[in-house]
Design goal:
There is one protein chain. 17% of the residues lie in helices and 39% in strands. The protein is an alpha+beta fold. The protein has a single domain, classed as Alpha-ketoglutarate-dependent dioxygenase AlkB-like (Jelly Rolls, Sandwich). Strand 5 and strand 6 form a beta hairpin. It is globular. The two termini are 27 Å apart.
Length: 192
């Protein structure tokens, strides 16, 4: 494996991690079995609605806080456990939870951020699974404005971030200028 980052972190991308049949099956199962919700978050002192729907699943009693909200976990579903087991074999870790994001269309997005909340510890491992429509994932270095990279996260792909990535890189899913269908993203994490 070769990292997509030139320095200060490790990001690995597997474009066809799940078969097309698995990807379609998991997408529709999650679309209908997850209790999706839209919650307000605080950005620059203002409260706005998140530009996507979310859910938090994982081991019991492990809540997660970001941008002024605290999410309490729903239990793992069979679908999530099947996905989790497959990615853990490559990530070589045991994930304790997952933040689920439903991007309904091209207008839904995720702004620039690092997954560096204290609950994740130092140098967290993040396993990101994409199902549904293809969306562009962008990374930029926090100190060197010239270091920026992007890739299309396709249906059934797996992106693994680890090492010092969250210390040195921001990432985002920008809005699309052209119409795009729904996408589900699962970001598996380890809470300490």
């Amino acid at each position: 494996m070769i990292s997509l980052l030139p320095q200060d972190g490790e990001v690995y991308y597997f474009s066809d991690f799940f078969t097309p049949e698995e990807s379609i099956h998991y997408f529709y199962k999650l679309l209908h079995e997850i209790e999706w919700k839209q919650e307000p978050i605080k950005l620059f002192g203002k409260e706005i609605m998140q530009p996507r729907l979310t859910a938090w699943h994982g081991d019991t009693q492990k809540s997660y806080s970001y941008s002024g909200i605290t999410m309490n976990p729903f239990p793992w579903t069979e679908t999530l456990l099947n996905i989790k087991l497959k990615i853990e074999a490559v990530a070589e870790v045991s994930f304790t939870s997952a933040l689920l994001n439903l991007y309904r269309d091209e207008k839904d997005s995720m702004g620039w951020h690092k997954d560096d909340e204290k609950e994740l510890g130092t140098n967290p491992v993040i396993g990101s699974v994409s199902l549904g429509a293809t969306r562009t994932f962008v990374l930029k270095h926090i100190r060197d404005n010239g270091l920026k990279t992007s890739l299309d996260l396709v249906n059934g792909s797996f992106l693994l971030m680890k090492g010092e990535t969250q210390q040195h890189w921001l990432h985002s899913i920008p809005k699309n200028s052209t119409p795009v269908g729904p996408r589900i993203n699962l970001t598996f994490r380890i809470l300490i």
